[in-house]
Prior knowledge:
Blueprint: H1 2-15, H2 23-27, E1 32-35, E2 42-46, E3 51-54, H3 58-67, E4 70-72, H4 74-77, H5 99-105, H6 121-126, H7 141-145, E5 151-154, E6 161-164, E7 171-173, H8 177-187, E8 189-191, H9 193-196, H10 224-233, H11 237-242, H12 249-258, H13 261-272, E9 275-279, E10 283-292, E11 295-305, E12 311-313
Amino acid sequence: MKxxxxxxxIFTLFSTxxxxxxxxxxxxxxxxxxxxxxxxxxxxxxxxNLSRYYLGRPSDAFDILKTLGEGISNNDLQKIPTGxxxxxxxxxxxxxxxxxxxxxxxxxxxKKDTDGDGFDDKEELENNYNPSNEERLGIDLDFTKSNLGKxxxxxxxxxxxxxxxxxxxxxxxxxxxxxxxxxMQQFGLGISINNLINIPxxxxxxxxxxxxxxxxxxxxxxxxxxDIANAIRAxxxxxxxxxxxxxxxxxxDYSLNHMPDESxxxxxxxxxxxxxxxxxxxKLIYKNTVYFNGNSFNMYFxxxxxxxGEWLMMNL
Length: 316
């Protein structure tokens, strides 16, 4: 009876995490928010629906931001001023612009002054001049302001991603996950849990893929929680059950067949966003925090080694 109550309390928690839309989302449109009361979890407020998307790890954040991006021509992209952040990315000509940024802009990575007019590329860019010629950039502040907070993908190149920061009103190049993380840190706005819960959550459903059976003798225990998260998001009941202690089969069957899709996605994201709290030879303990009605709940997930050498999740 006690176990049944636990399963149903978790089911109820995830099934009712749906927040009302408020003006707060409008005021924070396009911003990156950092939770100030726990571990600085990052969220992106998507301007198109004023909902928040959990950014998680740098690689996850990079993928999510690119997924939410919309195409833009080179001509329109040049209407937006370019911002520059401090980064440890390679800068071959030491002009203050990383090689990756210069490649995206079309300037010479080996020349501080691409057009040879006596002004460094960075100086020209900061003053809205084109580093590749002697012309001014066609900055359009009205166009810029009408698109604040968006992620743009260059359709005439290779899909390079740019974030238009609503505060500085400049675009920043998302060259790779580490840079995306640096931008999150630099432009992230602290927000309390009480305010954060007033912004509805959305998640990006990853395409369902066919996962090959685990080779038990090669199984990496630290992959188990991500495997489970992917299986849950795909609503693959059989795959999910194969990664759990068999004693949980009944509760997993019920939950995955009755929970709303949004709650299933939240559960998958909660698992993949958890962090390793402690580790022994035969047991891994992961932790994450759930916020509900202004209160926080610590959740722990145990992955244990079985007698046959297989690693399984023991609880949910």
